[in-house]
Each structure stands twice: as C-alpha cells, then as structure tokens.
Amino acid sequence: MKEIELLKKILPSLHQADSVEVGPGDDCAVLDLGADHLLLAAVDQVVANVHYDLDATAPQLIAAKLLKRNLSDIAAMGGSASWALLALASTHNNDSWYTDFYAGLESEALRWDVSICGGDLTGLRQTVPGDVASLTILGTVPGRFPALRSNALSGELLYATGCFGNSYSSGHHLNFSPRLREGKFLAETFTRTMIDVSDGLLLDAGRLAIASRVGVEMWPEAVPRRTGAALEQVMGDGEDYELLFTVAPDAAARLEKSWPFSEVLLTRIGRIIVGPPGVVVNRQGQPLAEIYPAGFNHVVK
Amino acid sequence: MKEIELLKKILPSLHQADSVEVGPGDDCAVLDLGADHLLLAAVDQVVANVHYDLDATAPQLIAAKLLKRNLSDIAAMGGSASWALLALASTHNNDSWYTDFYAGLESEALRWDVSICGGDLTGLRQTVPGDVASLTILGTVPGRFPALRSNALSGELLYATGCFGNSYSSGHHLNFSPRLREGKFLAETFTRTMIDVSDGLLLDAGRLAIASRVGVEMWPEAVPRRTGAALEQVMGDGEDYELLFTVAPDAAARLEKSWPFSEVLLTRIGRIIVGPPGVVVNRQGQPLAEIYPAGFNHVVK
Question: Residue A193: left (phi > 0), alpha (psi -120 to 50), or beta?
Fold first, then answer.
C-alpha cells in the first residue's frame, strides 16, 4: 500500500495539457484527439512473486493476467479495448518461456479483440528472479461521457458485479474474466460512476467515495462471497476484478430486469449517502474500516 | 541482442486489427482512430545496470533518459509527442528516490509538452537492486504519411543528424536531446524514410535497409564522430539517439540550404543502392559488418 499512497501524492500534481480530459486518479486516463471517440489509456504491471508465484505459474497465465488486469480498467470506464504495448524485463534465459508468455498474451488478446501493437524486451542478468512485465492498454469510449469514479450522487444505489474474496487461493486472480461487456452495457444506459475493484472492495469503495466527495453505506452481508471466503476477505482481499458502480434509484428496477448477463451476478450492496467524504459505513453508521481493518497487500510470497 | 532477435521473430506474427496502420517493427505503432491525425504509440524501458549505472546515476537523470528514449522514437516518425504513462518497479525504500525520479520526469515532460497521464508503481522486496522503469509514449502525426523505415528507394541519399560513438563515457546517453523538431521538419518536406539510431549506426542502417528491401552504401569516414570515438565505436556503439533518413537526390541541395537547426549537424553519409536487402557496404562494396563486427550491447556493468 505504501507505493499507492506515494503515487496518490505525486501523480495528481503533474501538469496536464488541455487534451487530457481525465488525468491520473481514475482507472484510465481520458484523452481527446479530436475524434468522435475519446482515447482511454492505462498502464499496469505484474511482478514475479508480488502478483504471482513465479515457480508455480505458467508464463501463458502470467501474460493473460497482465492483459486482463488492464482490460478491467477499460471496463470500468465503459470503454472498448483496442491496442496494447508490452514491456518485459526478465531473468529467464530460455526462449521457450518467452514464446509461451507471448503465446498466452496473443491468445488472450485475440479473445478480446486487442492488437499487441508494440513491445520492448530486456534480459536481466541477475541471479535473483525479478521478472517485471508492464502493459499499456489503449481503448476508446464514445462521446464525451465515460464512467468516472467521481460522478456519484447521494441517494444513488451501489451495485457490484460478481462475487468477492479469496481470489488467490481460489485461482480467481488468474482465471477471471474482465467485465468489458458489462461495463459497456452499464455506461451506455445505467451509470456514470464506476470503478474496478482490484485492491479490495472496501478500499475501492472508499476511493469512489473520495473521488465523488460522498459517503457510502455498504451492506457487507449482502455482498456475494466467493467459495471459502470469510467476510473480512470479502471486504479486504484484492484481485476481484469486478465492477462497483452507482445507479439512480428510479433506474434500479429496470437495470435488474434488463441485466443480460445471466452468468454474472448483479447485486445491490449499498447506497451513496451524505457523509464524511470517503468514509464507508454499515447500516448502523459504523465505519467499516474499523471492523475490517486488514488492508490489501499484493505480496503472494 | 538476443532479446531483440527474439522479439523480431515474435512481434511481427501477432495479429493486428485494421486500425493498426503500422504494427510492431517500426519506431512507433501507427493507429487510426478516425481523427485527422494518426496516433503514434511506443514503449521502451530502462533497467538498472543495463541502461544506466544504478549507483552513479541521479534518479532525475534516469527518468529523463527514459522519456527522451521514447521521444526519439516519436521523432523518427516525424510526429509530435503528447502523453506518457509510466510503470515503475523499484527496490528503493526511501520516498526521496521516487520523488526525485518523478521530479526529473515532470521537468523533462514539461520541456517537451508531454503530459504524464498515468502510472503504476510496484515496490520490489529484493536484496539485489533491480529497478525497471517502462514508459509508453503517445503522440500524433498529421495526415496519412508518417515517416517509416520501409520507404527507402534506391538512388536516394542517406543523411544523419548529429554525431556518433562514445555515448556512454561521454555522458551523451543521459544528456542527449531527442530530435523532435528535426524529425517533424524532415517528415513534413524532405523524407518519407526515417529511423532513430539507438542500437548503433550500422545496425540501425541495416534495419532501415531490411525494412525497405534495399542495400545501403555508407561512407564511414564521412560520419561525424563524437569526441574520443574511434571509427568502430562510431559504427557500433549504441545510444546515439540521432535520426537516419533518406532524401531524393534532387531535394538534397535544398535540404542542406534550408536546414534551420544550426546547432545540429546534418551530414550526407551514404546512399541507397540496389543490392542484397539489408546489407550495408562501403564504397568498395565490402560489407561493413565484416569490417566492424562488434555489435551493440546495452550492458553498462
């Protein structure tokens, strides 16, 4: 968490040109090129033994996870993903590891209609495994209204896709499916406020609330749990890669009725309230961070 | 070089959508978003003790080098740089190193009108220093004709900006100035074929020749040398970050007369010939790779 706190201080202070509609601080940057569509851009990385167990994870799965993490950021804006660029620094010295990594990336990219249009590869001469792979995803979103973290209004209802907790031991962190179709459907009709839940439900709900300067009332017992997950894991574990979003009360029934993705849970888990900005409470008004204090940590080893 | 060879095999085989005008293999990918301008995208990284000496290099300079390497790729397309995203994985555990790194990045970005619109930071828990920083640069190029590696025609003259060799010990690899203005000027009027020389003049001339399916006659004695550089360093050293490009014979005199950058050398160093594609020879027809066999290697330690 230390790194995220540091970035949160540095990134918003960086100067942004007028063409940057949304800069650092949301799931993607939103850039205006003068086309009908806005450009979405985000970068994310996976690091050996931080985001995956190097000895136990096939290179194909590492590559697929890297792409899908980034796709989840595009999904949270309601966008479509189009292009990706990969930078890989690796200690592996056998060609087959790289070939497998790229095969996994290519196969996942084909599944989501993404072109891997650029790349860089550096061999590391270290004795300690230290693979670092970063991927920049580029996509588009129609018109001038991508879903942002900062648009929530008090009175709106809080919804989530899928279920939560226990991502590592269940293998979900490798085999999840980014919610691209769902994000697009939601942003087109039902929501202007969305975030991808990757660092823990409670933490990411807090981020949405901070960005929107609102409070959140969340109902922990209503949140769908992944098999084997205790309630504190549901609230605190990372790597769920689900969407958290708000819906106007008068649209909620229509959303639930028209939800076309029968295999993906859609659950009302709380509401936006007037309250201290960024604070997530339960029905009794108790801050959930006090009840579930364990923050998310990516370290797998 | 091993990594580059591997990428050269893998990247061109990746599937590209119709929106990808130019895929992997040139200095930038060229993407069509349906705007007046085409989008340029490239990724490059700097790794501790591969691209710089970790103990001896200020974080500000590392960050600036990373951005400028990428700007050099935009320059080689004749484009303008607009946005950048940074992924940083670092073993440093003091905030001041990161603050200095971002300060260096921001200051260089302001100089070139680039907005740092996104980033990711991962802390590494290693005992061995293994910092990896990758940056994706995004830019634009007007119309449908960026300068490419693949447009050279036999009979054209070969030109280069600046001087070559001895980049590491002279400090040029840290304090160079990417040729953005020069690249734009050249692509607007004088050339359709350009490459950035970052892996050694001979190697990058060969790449231009392979992409264009032509031969190159190069005049080593005509190439401007950086102070202290022997001829083999001029031909083989990397990290020059100069532009290599071709000009039609009837435009050469006009180019030399109208060159507006008095502080940047402009030198005719050879010509495009009919010959085995990718082979660079001297006036006597001898392959220069036989005379200057030392290939470039980024390792600084």
Answer: beta
Is the interface score ipTM higher than 0.90?
yes
A85: chain B residues, CB-CB within 8 Å: 29, 41-43, 136
pLDDT digits (tens, 9 = 90+) for A271-292: 999 999 999 999 999 999 999 9
Contact B128 A130 (CB under 8 A): yes
Selected for mutation to probe chain B from A8, A20, A21, A33 (highest B CB count within 10 Å) is A33
Find, among A82, A194, A81, A79, the residue nearest to A143 by Cα.
A79
Chain A residues lying within 8 Å of B41, measured CB to CB: 83, 85, 117-118, 136, 138
Contact A162, A264 (CB under 8 A): yes
- Inter-chain Cβ pairs, chain A and chain B, closer than 8 A: 226
Which candidate, B207, B231, B204, places its Cα nearest to that of B220?
B231
Helices A2-10 and B95-111, packing angle to 10 deg: 30
Q: Please identify, among B91, B110, B142, the residue that sits at the C-terminal boundary of a domain.
A: B142
Closest CA to A212 of A267, A279, A141, A296: A279
Chain B residues with CB-CB distance to A112 below 8 A: none
> Domain containing B233: what range?
149-291
Q: How many domains is chain B built from?
A: 2
Q: How confident is the model at residue A299 (pLDDT cuts 50, 70, 90)?
A: very low
pLDDT exceeds cutoff 80 at A212: yes
Taking an 8 Å cut-off on Cβ atoms, the answer to whether B43 and A86 are in contact is yes
Residues of chain B above pLDDT 90, percent = 79
Instruction: For residue B9, tell me if it sits in a domain.
Output: yes
Residues in chain B: 301
Domain end marker among A116, A142, A168: A142
Please state the pTM of the whole predicted model.
Answer: 0.93
pLDDT of the residue at B126:
65
Q: What angle do CA B267, B273, B277 make, to 5 degrees?
A: 110
| CATH number of the domain encompassing residue A190 | 3.90.650.10
User: 3-state DSSP call for residue A212?
Assistant: helix
Paired sense of beta strands A29-31 and A20-22, if any? antiparallel
